[in-house]
């Protein structure tokens, strides 16, 4: 099923969610099935790439892609994410995720064969979090914001070519729980280059 969220390309569900609906204000609500995740354990084991994800071809050149994310947190690692995907062993996600201590956090996972998992900052209870992906030539940058204006630097990295052409989009997950509802809104895309990684813009 193709979904129009205002990006300059068509997006399709590679893995469909339990439920997907548009609200009257245009927000996209995605419900992840139980025990779905995207993670390749660096300690070993088979890749887990079962989370529902909505993806489309990454446009050429530099760009910025952002969305406000709200998550109905219930269990540890419930999350809503922006995703850069180049195959089951080459991808990166910027997540608004529930920690085992119950806090919402900005979390990033970079996967090049195995996942490199890093926690960012804690978000006040119940607040939304803006997430942003930027492409800068051969590199990518992740930022997160509590107000959609001041952006905290999260990661700067290269993904390089994976098994598939690079696609970008949205993802929702519930790794250990019975399901997770994520709302994506204020989705924005610009083909302008991010001028500075660390000046908050």
From TrEMBL:
<protein>
    <submittedName>
        <fullName>Regulation of enolase protein 1 (Concanavalin A-like superfamily)</fullName>
    </submittedName>
</protein>
<dbReference type="Pfam" id="PF07081">
    <property type="entry name" value="DUF1349"/>
</dbReference>
<dbReference type="InterPro" id="IPR009784">
    <property type="entry name" value="DUF1349"/>
</dbReference>
<dbReference type="InterPro" id="IPR013320">
    <property type="entry name" value="ConA-like_dom_sf"/>
</dbReference>
């Amino acid at each position: 099923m193709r979904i129009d969220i205002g990006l300059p390309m068509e997006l399709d569900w590679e893995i469909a969610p339990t439920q997907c609906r548009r609200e009257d204000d245009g927000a996209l609500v995605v419900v992840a099935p139980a025990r779905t995740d995207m993670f390749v354990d660096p300690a070993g084991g088979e890749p887990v790439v079962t989370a529902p994800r909505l993806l489309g071809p990454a446009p050429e050149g530099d760009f910025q892609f952002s969305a406000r994310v709200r998550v109905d947190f219930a269990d540890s690692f419930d999350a809503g994410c922006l995703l850069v995907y180049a195959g089951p062993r080459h991808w990166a996600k910027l997540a608004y995720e529930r920690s085992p201590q119950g806090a919402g956090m900005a979390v990033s996972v970079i996967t090049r064969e195995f996942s490199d998992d890093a926690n960012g900052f804690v978000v006040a209870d119940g607040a939304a979090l803006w997430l942003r992906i930027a492409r800068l030539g051969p590199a990518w940058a992740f930022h997160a914001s509590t107000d959609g204006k001041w952006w905290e630097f999260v990661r700067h990295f290269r993904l390089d070519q994976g098994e598939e052409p690079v696609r970008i989009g949205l993802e929702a997950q519930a790794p250990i729980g019975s399901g997770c509802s994520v709302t994506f809104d204020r989705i924005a895309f610009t083909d302008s280059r991010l001028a500075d990684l660390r000046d908050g813009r």
